[in-house]
Amino acid sequence: MKTAAVKAAAVTAAKVAATFFPARNFIATNLAVVVVLESLFARQIRDGDVNVAVVALDSVERSDDGLYGCTARNDGGEAYVNGHLEVQFPPSFDAMPNVDVYYSWNDNPINLTCIAESIPNATIRWYFSSNRVEASRNKQLTVIGEGPKSILQVTPKDTTHYTSYTCHAQNLLGDAEYVMKLTEAYPPESIQQAIIIEEESTADMVTFRFVGPREISGLEVDAYLVQYRRYDQSWADARRRIWTKGTPYVLEDLQPRETYAFRFAARNPVGTGDWAADVTRQMPEEGPPFRPVIEGAPISDTDFTQTPYPDRYELRWQVPPANGRPIDSFEVSFHKVVRDKSTGMWTQDGPKHTKSRPYPGGSLVMSLNGLDADTFYQVELRAHNIIGFSHPGLTVFKTERSHNQPPPETEKVKSASDDSEASSTTVETAEETYGLVIGVVAVVLLILIVVDFILCRKQKGLMYKVSRMCHRDSYSAKHYTLEEGKGDKDPKLVLNDAEKVSSETAPMISEPVASRSSKAIPPFSSTAAKVAANVAAVEAAVDENYGITLEYLEATLLELMPC
């Protein structure tokens, strides 16, 4: 690591041993920024088998502090080495907060902070009235830390402590001083004037503005106080109100036609100043409410606002002062307007529509619906109490263009054709759905029959129970004779003569039931054909796994259910 004092010259070198003289680049890494410092090369020399690249900085700045890298390259490869340049500098107070005056009062302790930046670190000492502060000698002064940050805690017991204090920082390269002043703070003086704002005052409310104290004795004013009483009362019975500085100075809930006395004072962190001269006011009689304020209304009477809707407008407003009697409703009226080209003012261009909204209880938002697109409207909003209506709050707005314009005739014809195609497609879809339902039901029934047949062979299931019932009835109604066949392995069923005749004359079944029923199935759509194909696949699967065909299944069922 190399060190250099600020404003001094700095030299750093990189040595490399190689057969071939390499090319070199110095790379400075500072604040995460890599810069190739080609211009910093002073010379490149050879010392025996060692090549040396030397970089020189004529006047080092604090920003030159950081990592530097040297890269050597030749045909044999590449090598890299890092080096750090530390720039030393005398103490500096650039990191100090921009405060050189401190305030204290009533023996409150106060901290004076000193921060000195330097390399190497500086030692900090405090001086009070040109004397070095030593905590062991003065209990009202306490030093916390000696660098690079130090705090002097002052507990002022008398006026001698309200003076200047010096922070002295020193290292090997130099020294620096920073002077701070401790001042005693006082409550503010009386305000110069309290002014009543008539246009913002009503029969039961007064609005003020203040001209603050002429001189600020230490800290700034942060609040104003008011005491007020009826004229026939004493200040001992007065009421009190505090306003934070910068807020509306409004006094409410006063009695109409009553005379009041007001007095005001300013306050800061130290305390409250003296009361200013009294202000007397007789409150006026009750009257209609003040003009309501419409939110978003343009300032100029000739301007307008744009609503994003083509057929409606959302009106929002604020409740105005009631002027002695409570507000019971709001009245909203609106009508079309056009601009007079000669005067630029708005004139009515259609009938007026009126709506009413109760208050309190009603919302302060009203939607005006059924408006024409791309049209100017004017809204008048009035507040009402038992005395009467207020002056109207006005706004003019313009509705948006409609996006639902009627299409041309050619487009209408095209739409009718599209409807016809859509209707035809709907019919086809219905037919396909009907065929699909029939096919699914047929597949489900087939699967149930196959499963029941398998169970019947195991003497279970619905077929088996029905067959047993039918056989019992048959045996009770007819006379069968069972004899052993000579030479036959299986027993035979021998019928009497009447049964033989009836059996011989009975019609033969010439075709399977399945084939007859398939002829009655109406032709399906393409979807139904797919279902039929799936049914055929199921039949093939049943035949492959169980060795059963539909014809065999039909014949077996007829044999099992002779009834």
From TrEMBL:
GO MF terms held by the record: axon guidance receptor activity
Biased composition (Basic and acidic residues): 398-417
UniProt keyword annotation of Phosphoprotein present: no
Stretches the record annotates as Disordered: 398-426
Residue ranges crossing the lipid bilayer per the database entry: 434-455
Cellular compartments per GO CC: axon; neuronal cell body; plasma membrane
Name of the featured protein: Uncharacterized protein
Species per Swiss-Prot/TrEMBL record: Notodromas monacha
